[in-house]
Amino acid sequence: MKRYLPFLIIGAVLVVVIVATLGTLRSRKVDATVPFASPVGSQPAGPTAPSPAQSAPTSPTVPTVDLPKNLPAGVSVTLEEFGDYQCPPCGLLHPELKQIAAEYGNRVKIIFRNFPLTTNHKNAMPAAQAAEAARLQGRFDEMHDRLYEHQGDWKDLDDPRPVFARYAKEIGLDLSQYARDVSGNEVQQKIDFDVQTAAARGVNGTPTVFVENRQLKTEVTNLAGIRSGINLMLARKASGSN
Predict the structure, then answer these.
(1) Nearest to residue 215, comparing CAs of 154, 225, 160, 97?
(2) What is the per-residue pLDDT across 45-58, written as a single tens digit (0 to 9) for each?
(3) pTM of the predicted model, to two decimals?
(4) In angstroms, how far is the first alpha carbon of the chain from the final one?
(5) What is the DSSP string of 74-89?
């Protein structure tokens, strides 16, 4: 019996290692099905310094989560995008978020938060100011759309402000008020608030998307990934889960 004892010990150790490895792989497989960057109930990360814009979103690596059937009336979620108007991936994401808004209607409230990466994008701040000045006249969506849809027209200009003033005229703003607001304290305070919110929630690149305060993984920050995140959170809210 003593002769075989070392082999028995080795065999037992191998079994433990194999079981532990399978458990780790299984947990990784489960994690891979979740479109969010952190587990349910976890808090957003602490502040970090802004970094360059993220690369363009890639194909999703999570299975599609379907919209729950027989969803009760009034169940909705909030989607927040931290974006930079000069960021190319943000420009690519813009039409996909427009599609999300069209598909889900009042099931999803979309909030845009300014996170201009001024170190890399010299025109990001003037663009944010133009959008927020338009908001003060109830025309934020119109200016927001023009800035992204015509990003290529102004992103490399030495001074994009005349272009933004033309957009203001096209969407019917009072140009005198726009000229005052665009460089005023109220507009800058709104942008500063958004930037501070980004820092408090650990945002360090654009676009960054949260659904019900849960950050989507960068690799699934695209149409399919956002749908899955929304559907998952709608299902959780419909079932009474937090």
Answers:
(1) 225
(2) 433 334 444 544 44
(3) 0.77
(4) 57
(5) T--EEEEEEE-TT-HH
